[in-house]
Amino acid sequence: MLLTIENLRKSYGTPDGSVQAVVDVPVFSLDTAQQMALCGTSGSGKTTFLNLIAGILKPDAGRIELDGCAISDASEAGRDRLRARTIGYIFQTFNLLQGYTCIENVLLGMSFGPGADRRRARGLLERVGLGQRLDHFPRQLSTGQQQRVAVARALANRPKLVLADEPTGNLDPASAAESLGLIHETCLENGAALLLVSHDREVLGQFDNVRDLAEINRAAACPSAGEARS
């Protein structure tokens, strides 16, 4: 298995001083090149779950093993290195650097991994239909085009796992369908596993393997942790 999780827990404090469990996953796994969608209600822990897998957050307890490495046990610097080497993350808000061009955004992503490769960066942007937009800034692109840059950046370091957090949430239906197809296709071409979070039925319908977070997360029935931690 590419990804295995055991007894994973993450909690947050609430305004009344109590502690709210957001993620409580006894067991979860994802195989090499497997594509899976996760659905769940708002506030059920979807984003927190992805951020734990990515090593952006450190769990309170449990084990996350990714490509043979225990990311849950690593230091912050170790998690950063493992994430750069193994994971591509497509954020809902894209997280592009507004002062940098399309190709610079991809090259900067590469700099955290094996190193910048302008030829590969150009090739990825051409693959997602932005070969004529290499030197455009994000503000000069449509929302759908910005999302394509985010996809290219996520694949730049040849990740073994791509995480996508509501990647079509800011797109119109036509752009969403096109973008989703692109994510599926590019992950297949690169041999990357895909774990995508969405609440959109149209998006979920494009996956053969769909899991409800409530099925794997004992804390998913407690949405009071808030939208920001969904």
Detailed description of the structure:
- By secondary structure, the protein is α/β, with parallel strands linked by helices.
- It has a single domain, classed as Rossmann fold (3-Layer(aba) Sandwich), CATH 3.40.50.
- Helix content is 34%, strand content 23%.
- The protein contains eight helices and nine strands.
- The chain has helices at 46-54, 76-86, 102-111, 118-127, 143-155, 173-190, 201-204, 213-216, and strands at residues 3-13, 19-30, 35-39, 61-66, 69-70, 87-90, 161-165, 193-197, 210-212.
- A five-stranded parallel sheet has the order 6-7-8-3-9, sandwiched between helices. Strands 2-1-4-5 form a four-stranded antiparallel sheet, with helices on one face.
- The chain is globular.
- Termini separation (Å)? 26 Å
In the CATH hierarchy, the third-tier topology is known as: Rossmann fold
Average pLDDT figure? 89
Number of domains: 1
Report Rg: 17 Å
- Written as H for each helix and E for each strand, in order along the chain, the element string is EEEHEEHEHHHEHEHEH
Low-confidence runs: 223-230
Helix content: 25-40%
The second-level CATH architecture is 3-Layer(aba) Sandwich
Strand order of the largest sheet: 6-7-8-3-9
What is the CATH superfamily label? P-loop containing nucleotide triphosphate hydrolases
What kind of sheet is the major sheet? 5 strands, parallel
| Class derived from helix and strand content | alpha/beta
Give the number of helices.
8
Q: Which quaternary structure do these chains form?
A: single chain
Report the count of strand segments: 9
Q: Which word captures the global form?
A: globular
